[in-house]
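re: ur question from the group chat, yeah i did fold both. here u go
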Amino acid sequence: MAEQLEPVKKREEEFRAEILTRDGLIERQRLAMEELKADLEEVKRKLNDESSQNNKMVDLRLDFEAKIDKKEIEIHRLKEEVVKQRDEIRGKDEAIKALTMTLLEKGKDNQKLSEMIIEIKNH
């Protein structure tokens, strides 16, 4: 009976060797999967970091654009103020010219009156 069991035992040993080989393969694949999982987690972390940096850059760009918009609005307001003040100055210049002309005319009239008074006194 031992002779009849010999092929079965040999077959059993072959199966055990095959199982050990497959167990080793499974363990190597499990370790490789764990390594891939760790790599994936690292990639996710880097992606989150880059996304965070990208969001910060977008925020900085939007802040910068908002500041530029505010400056452009301020520049426009100042230009309008300059135009308004130029118009005021132009109006004041014209008023000063008109007053000067009036004073000159009044001065000429006064001079004529003075000359007439002197002439009347002299006669």
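okk and heres the other one u asked abt
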Amino acid sequence: MTKTKLLFMSLILILGGATKAVADDNTYNVNTYAGITNADFSSGNLNGWSHSGFTYNGGTWGNGGHMNQYAEKWASGTLNNYAIWRNTTAIMPAGTYTLTFNYNGAVGNKQETPMTGVTAFCGGHKQSITTINATTAQTFTMTFTTTEARYFDLGVELSSTTNANWIILDDFQLLWNGTEGEFNNACNALPTTASITNPIDYSNRVTNFGTHRANSPGWSKISSNGGGNCEFVSVIGDQAGFVYWNSSVQSNADLIYQDVTLPAGAYTLQADAAATVWNNNNGGENKRGCYVFAGTSDTEITSATYSTYTFGFTLAEAGTVRIGIKSKTNEGNNWCFLSNVKLTYLGQAVTIDEKQTTYTAATGMHDVALTRTLTANAWNTFVVPFAITGDELKTAFGDDVAVAEYSETADGDNSNVSFNTMTTPAISANVPVLLKPTTVSGDATYTFTNRTIEEGTPTVAGSNNFDFVGTYTTITYLPEGTYFLGNGDNKLYKTVASTTTLKGTRAYIAPRTTDGARIANFFIDGDQTTAIEGLAVDESAADHVYDLQGRRMAKGQLRQGLYIKGGKKFIVK
């Protein structure tokens, strides 16, 4: 890339009568980085540019040859629904840019009448072009700021209501408003690996993502309808878009679509869309039933004029996904529009499945797809490698969800294990708990977005003999002498033989040694369970007295309150 410096002029250079915009000390020409080749059409053609009916003119125009080699479009009538554009081949970093080019035009062969319906666009920004001159080329300049790194589509489009019948274009330049060093730093800071916090624009994988060209390449329409051109329709906002229409409603059909090949991971699709009824002259009627979609994910189009719709979808495996507009029911409209599609890659979602046999912590920020069978209104052991707040727990598992924490006290080899409900439920990464959901997913799947996955050993240490140990993989056989919670019965069971399988994202109670330690009492919120199945309790422990937190009390020193002895409650008054 080369940089042109001027001492006295900031943007416009006059060379042999021709007007040409150049970079100054405060701007940097990024055409080469952006892949904007043949920007002045000096290759003798329109190579690199997409267009609808524009032609190359190798001559000169204007007194003194103000423009030399340019793109041109002329018609005896007005230039309705025409465009010339190109996409950058690189993701452009966030920042402030200036698009500039030379042009001229005519309205009914008159070059004094201001043009209408002619628009320059770049990076999602637009600006009208109005001024024309009979003898001198005009220089167009548009400065804009983008807050996210993205591919740009840039060019000029003429609406369905333009009054222009001739236009010529030349010398396109994209300038970064800053120094070369600042631009290079911004490029070096672009993420190379996508994540929730560092998404990467994948719009270049969508052919003609800006939908500017008539008979728009890349996009298809349902074969039974008569529409399909990419055009401006003033009734829904005079914005270019790929159009579907039919004299009757087409139900449960892909109306406008494109198949895109993508790697596995999470995505966001954004698009401008509208849906209405044929011959709706005021843009006010919308009967619903049309959806912007990607694969099996979608969002309903709720307006008869252009609105922006955004939703996410996930691909479990690399492959082809269809995007576009579809209908579902007989309520579907028979006239719909799609424009300005933007596809963003958020990285691969992390899958945690209770049946998995291997697990490697995918540290960092990710979406998480959790598969876990839970029993509603009963205690379940539960552990995940990311934190879940109280509000998130309520969203996933019901407003009255409860979480209980592990603790242990001991008298020699005899331990008392307690789980006590948290006042404000929350789950920390790699900390096993008891979880009591009030609602559960019918397909046992839960999605948690924007999670920070942490490495760590999923264990809560007891104070003496036993730890509460979580697992993210299926354990074929729990070791003999370990304890586990029954499936929905709130009972504690002891493994007496190698026959018990425990699935992932669960936990069990494991002895620290094999020297005869045992669980004498098991409490949940101070209530002793009705049985510890498979456990022979030391008879010497039957006379011990415990409070409702499982702590052994000294005999003869009991205050007023409720206590447990021999598995039964009693009151000291």
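fwiw on the second one: The first strand starts at residue 12 and ends at 15. The radius of gyration is 34 Å. idk if thats what u expected
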